[in-house]
Amino acid sequence: MGFDTRAFRQALGCFPTGVAVVTAHSPTSHPMGITVNSFASVSLDPPLVLWCLDRGSDRFHTFTTAAGFTISLLGTAHETVSSRLAKQGEHSLDGIDLLPTELGPPALADALAIFECACEAVHDGGDHAILVGRVLRFARREAGEPLVFFRGRYGALAATKS
Questions:
Q1: Does 162 map to a domain?
Q2: How many independent structural domains does the chain possess?
Q3: What is the CATH number of the domain that holds 9?
Q4: Is residue 148 part of a domain?
Q5: Which of 29, 104, 112, 114 is the most exposed, fewest CB within 10 Å of its CB?
Q6: What residues contact residue 73 under an 8 Å CB cut-off, 6+ apart?
Q7: Is residue 51 part of a domain?
Q8: pLDDT confidence band for 145 (50 / 70 / 90)
Q9: Which sign does the torsion angle of CA 27, 28, 29, 33 carry?
Q10: How many CB atoms are located within 10 Å of the residue 47 CB?
């Protein structure tokens, strides 16, 4: 019996994840973005983070060859932006509230946290590439609820009682 890839994907969807948008400059210097839910911390010293990119993405070359990228962790107010940038061919940041960064690729305004990263490494990960970034600068907000992805749908965390 063969491996059921669809069932495997559904099982992976049982793990709730946060949602991020990664931005980089395209070869024409216009910034582009992509939605990811594969963001993770790697190391505090040196400060490293990672995210994964499907080899079939039309943005694969841009992100895997970029000198750096900016990661914006999304709040619930960013669901529409996240949905838009998750689609093939939808990589333009036009009409999205952005913040300039020292590195160059912009951050999303009102993101819960922002990480400006130099590309440290790109590793093979099967049908994905694993991009490791060295965090050069970061910022975070105290307010805001995270956007969460679970079983193929967006959601939010339940408020905790103090």
A1: no
A2: 1
A3: 2.30.110.10
A4: yes
A5: 29
A6: 18, 19, 20, 39, 111, 112, 113, 114, 146
A7: no
A8: very high
A9: negative
A10: 17
Q: What is the pTM of this model?
A: 0.93
159 falls in which pLDDT band (50, 70, 90)? low
Q: Is 66 left (phi over 0), alpha (psi -120 to 50) or beta?
A: beta
**Spatial separation of the C-alpha atoms in residues 87 and 85, rounded to whole Å:** 5
Q: Report CA torsion sign: 72, 74, 79, 83.
A: positive
HSE-up (13 A, CA, CB side) for residue 2: 4
Average pLDDT over residues 30-38: 93
User: Running DSSP on this structure, what letter comes out for residue 75?
Assistant: B
CA distance 71 to 29: 18
User: Residue 128: inside a domain, yes or no?
Assistant: no
